[in-house]
Every structure is written in C-alpha cells, then in structure tokens.
Amino acid sequence: MIDVLVIGGGNAALCAALMAREAGASVLLLEGAPRAWRGGNSQHTRNLRCMHEAPQDVLVDAYPEEEFWQDLLKVTGGQTDEHLARLVIRASSNCRDWMRSHGVHFQPPLSGALHVARTNAFFMGGGKALVNAYYRSAERLGVQIRYDAPVDDIELDGDRFVAAHISAREVDGKQYPAERIEARTCVLAAGGFESNREWLREAWGVNERGEWPADNFLIRGTRFNNGVLLRKLIDAGAETIGDPTQAHMVAIDARAPLYDGGICTRIDCVSLGVVVNCEGERFYDEGEDFWPKRYAIWGRLVAQQPRQVGFSIIDQKAIGRFMPPVFPGTTANSLEELASKLGLPVEAFVKTLQAYNSACVGDDFDHTRLDGCHTEGVTPAKTHWARPIDTPPFYGYPLKPGVTFTYLGLKTDDTAAVRFAGKPSANLFVAGEMMAGNVLGKGYTAGVGMSIGTAFGRIAGTQAAAAAGHRPHTASDGESRAIA
C-alpha cells in the first residue's frame, strides 16, 4: 500500500509530494489533466509573494511580516484567519532555497511601475517552468505520477481516508477500467470549482436585472478544476470556510478564450484611465491603490455591472506605461467615435468622460507612487493618477470577469488536516486552492496564492508522511515545525 496519495497536480500538490518523499514516504500523485496540461493554475503564475526583513537574493529592500500582514488584511477586509495567514507569511521567507533545490530558478529583481521587485520573487520562465522543475524533481526522487487520472470520489471511514476512486474512462481512444486506490494517508490539492459552470450559477444566482452573471464569466484558470472532490468532502461532512461567490477574479480582455487564458489576458491600464460599464458610467475608484494590490478586485466589480462587461478607457498619454495586452484596443480620434465603435451610448459616455476630465486635480502625475493627482466633485472619485483623458488617439478595451480560482474550501488548521465536526482527521490533509479561503476570505494581492500553496503544500506533505510513519530527516524538511 502506498504511504501518501496526493490528489492534484499543481504547486501545492507537488510541494506536498516532494516533502513526503523527502521524509521517506512512498508517494503516488494523481493529476486529473493530461500531461500537456499538467500543473493546474500554477502553470499560469509568475511569482511568489515573500516576506523578508532585509534585501535577499532576488528581493530588494525589505518587506517585513507586519507590512505583508497589513497588505493582506486590507485586501481581505479582515476576512482571514490571522494565525494561518501569519504562518503563510513566515513560510514565504524561507522556502526559496528549498525551491531551488528542486530546480526552480528566480529572475533578477524587477524594477518599474509594478512595485513588485520588493515584495515578489519571479520564477525564471514563469509558472510552467516551476511546474516542470517540480515534476522533474519528483520523478528523480521516485514519486509515482499518473496523468489523465481524475479522482471523482473519496472513500472515508468516519473522518479517516480509506481510498480514492477513479471512474472508467477513455483516454486517447483507449478504455481504462474503474479503479480504487488505497493509501495510508492522503493530501487533497485538486483546486476549486471555477470551471464548474453549474456550481458558479448556483453560487451567483440571478441578479436584480434577471441575468445569470456566471454565464458571462471567463475561466482565466485551468479547465480541469471542477470541484468534484470539494463537493464530495462537503457532502461527507467536512468543515468548510468561505463564500462561494468570492474568488480570485480579474477583469480580463472580453475577447480572451473561455479557459486557460492566464496572465496574458489581463488588462493592466485600469489605473491609468477610467472604467465604464455598458451604460457609459464609471462605477469604482480606478486609482485606489497600486495595481498589484487591486487588480484582482476588478473582476468582481465588472461581474456586478449590467451584462457583466466593462470598458477600460485611456488616451495616448498612457501608452508605454503598462504591459501591452495581447489583443489590440479599439482606437478612435474622438470620444464620440470611441463610444460608437465600442457600442456604448455616445451621449452618456461623453458626459461621463467630460465630468471626469473637469474633476481632475493635480499636476505631479507619477505612476510609480501614490501621487497627488485626484478628482474632486465626481462620484466615484479617483484617488490617484487622475489625468484628463483628452489626448487622441483614445483607446478602449472590453472587459469581462475572469475567474482564476474560487475561495470556498475546506477548513483547516496549522497541521493542514481536514476537519470533521471540530476534529482534525488523522490521515486526510488539504493544501492549495481547496483551503485558500482560510487565508483569503475575499480580495487578493499578487503572488499570495503561491505563498499559500507552497506553505500548506509543504506542511501537508510533511504531516501526511508523519501520519504514515515517516518523519523528516532534518529540521529544514519539517516546514510545519520550522514555522510554527
């Protein structure tokens, strides 16, 4: 019988598998996706948010624990477990050497307007390179890996894991029989339910306009996260945490593909202009804070607008100050022409832009800091980087909500154990997006999802190996002990 069964194939699952194997446990990892799509949402990531008290290798200046905590507290509005959040924050300071030992490389510090050279460590080659490095290391260490192996049921004896079930299936024209896989312990790291349209519809329901908002969502993340195991565990009585409508939801290009658009579908010029809905009206402060701290609120904001669409509007002055999107914007030499091309009500749109332009105050525009350029006399206000949109050509980018991962998950503690009726399971653990809601009740800040997955993946792997009778060989291997 295998010691540790890991269900999932992204960052958290791989961290768990590697830690369990390093502790001496036999490990089987089941990835539901084909090999070409392995890695879940982790393949679309770029960086890891890291606490550090002083400059460290690829990180400049300092990003101390309290600042990280305050950033998280602000974006979540206090909807976070402080003990688990601080555990993640501390773990983010000492994981990079371990990551490097498994083949992960980091870029030199970045500089510029995104303000992430201080807070985030970027993976050389992005998330796909990180995932590939972990898989190579897992194979080298003897972790058994199976692809096209979607687990659709979990067998429990009370609160104890017994076996995982895979239904009969066809892969590349070949039939595979149903399977029952036993293991001494199990780590669940199979992601949320963002690609389950019916569950999204159930969560979001019908709005006051008679629309089903979820029908207009794009899935920025992987198509394979359908929440089957999350639903099974909930039905089996596992304790849950989080709001099913809360998610890492980004306003992405409305022309993006339905699934797996990833980072490149983001529209990063929001803070440099204004955003209007399909009625030509602004609806939120575009300059509230630096973009890495606020980009992930815009998907939910757009989801609350009519038809779940928005439009990011800039002028020539903004060009060159943000990462160019994959799809070109709609251009025009007048605001009237731009509104017409975007299908917006011309009179309402022009009135909105004229009111905004007249309200702009300040002449010390600086997108690299919270500057003094703001609006007065319009609602909503724009707090920073407010400049009149008055220099043609004008640009418009259509927006839709892009769901990366959902926050409804399994409640856990600092051992990563799944909980039933207030009691932690002795051999069933959870990591990654299936428990991220313990730390992220709402909101997001760049790179924190990877921080959560790395911390709890390592804890879950260590704890699962210990429950199967294997202890880490060194203190550095025991992540849960090192950061407790």
TrEMBL record:
Annotated PANTHER family: FAD-DEPENDENT OXIDOREDUCTASE 2 FAD BINDING DOMAIN-CONTAINING PROTEIN (PTHR43400:SF7), FUMARATE REDUCTASE (PTHR43400)
Name of the featured protein: Tricarballylate dehydrogenase
Species per Swiss-Prot/TrEMBL record: Ectopseudomonas oleovorans
UniProt keywords, alphabetically: FAD, Flavoprotein, Oxidoreductase
GO MF terms held by the record: oxidoreductase activity
Cofactor: FAD
InterPro entries: CobZ, FAD-dep_OxRdtase_2_FAD-bd, FAD-oxidoreductase_2, FAD/NAD-bd_sf, Rhodanese-like_dom, Succ_DH/fumarate_Rdtase_cat_sf
Pfam family, one: FAD_binding_2
